[in-house]
Specification:
Length: 316
């Protein structure tokens, strides 16, 4: 059952605009109509199409293929080049397959969505809420990210930060999909105050901190043994919210045709007060989440774009 309900209207939630009916959006509407019809097909067929498109994308998008290859080579130096390339190919299959599941997230009734989601360890959330604890759910950019959010919002009131997309129509559609079960999202421009307020009132805070956002908002900490520019906010956020931090990861189980959303053990002695040590602790937990389903992580992101002073780019 959802633990908290807010009467506040989310001011940052995109709203439908009449301008979306302008001819410049017609091609997008046509594509969305086809995507909606595609989402009605059996999941096995959706998976097959998604994986084939992933193989095609791996062949054609050499830039992203090479970024993923560099990332995996740095993080798993014990792997051979052939093993790394096999991991990259599987990453593209899982990545595009997950995109093909977005139609379910946007339009499928909750009863159908439930058939594709299993949860593990969620009883810990109930136990902490009974103890009047505030909770931050730490997750990461993986193929199961959107289904992780849906699994949580089906069961509890949630909020989280939101990065608007450039295309206003797609931005509205994605935001509606994420918020249709009650999740409140806030843009970066709104800052952390509304997130802290909601968390103190009982909402679960879904938080991601594995992107490279540059040296201005980061510290360097090990990530699979490689120094990575790491957002150093989680420790301060946990302290401000007086919250327990629980890692949560969603992985797609192909044999079961389900997303398994798993809660890992809570982060102990966190924060410690030293932002570099806290960042290193967080990265270690992110590593543990990634290792639940290695190839499903978003290895095509420029994870190591920002380098320590004097180090050359790893992507050149």
């Amino acid at each position: 059952m959802k633990s908290f309900k807010s009467s506040r209207q989310n001011q940052s939630m995109p709203v439908f605009e009449l301008s979306f009916l302008h001819p410049r959006f017609w091609l997008i509407w046509f594509g969305l109509m086809l995507f909606f019809l595609f989402s009605l097909l059996p999941l096995s067929l959706i998976n097959t199409v998604g994986e084939k498109l992933g193989e095609y994308a791996a062949r054609k998008n050499k830039k992203r293929f090479n970024i993923a290859k560099v990332n995996l080579s740095l993080c798993f130096p014990e792997k051979t080049e052939a093993e790394i390339e096999a991991m990259v190919l599987e990453h593209f299959r899982t990545y595009i397959r997950s995109l093909m599941h977005y139609g379910l997230l946007w339009w499928a009734p909750e009863s159908r969505l439930n058939k594709y989601i299993d949860v593990e360890g969620f009883e810990k959330i109930d136990q902490l809420l009974e103890q009047k604890k505030n909770i931050i759910l730490l997750t990461c950019h993986s193929a199961g990210l959107e289904f992780t959010g849906i699994a949580l919002s089906m069961r509890h009131a949630c909020s989280g930060p939101y990065k608007p997309m450039r295309n206003k129509l797609i931005n509205w559609l994605v935001a509606q999909g994420r918020g249709r079960l009650g999740t409140i999202t806030y843009t970066r421009e709104e800052g952390f105050r509304p997130l802290i307020r909601d968390t103190r009132k009982g909402r679960l805070l879904i938080y991601l901190a594995d992107e490279d956002l540059g040296s201005d908002v980061s510290v360097f900490a090990p990530f699979f043994g490689v120094q990575k520019a790491t957002i150093s906010v989680l420790g301060r956020l946990a302290k401000s919210c007086d919250a327990v931090v629980l890692p949560c990861i969603g992985c797609y189980d192909k044999e079961r045709s389900k997303y398994v959303v798993k809660l890992l053990p809570q982060m102990e002695n966190f924060p410690c007060g030293n932002e570099v040590d806290d960042a290193a602790t967080m990265n270690k937990v992110v590593e543990e989440m990634i290792c639940q389903c290695k190839t499903q992580y978003f290895w095509n992101l420029r994870l190591f774009q920002t380098r320590p002073e004097g180090e050359a780019s790893v992507y050149e």
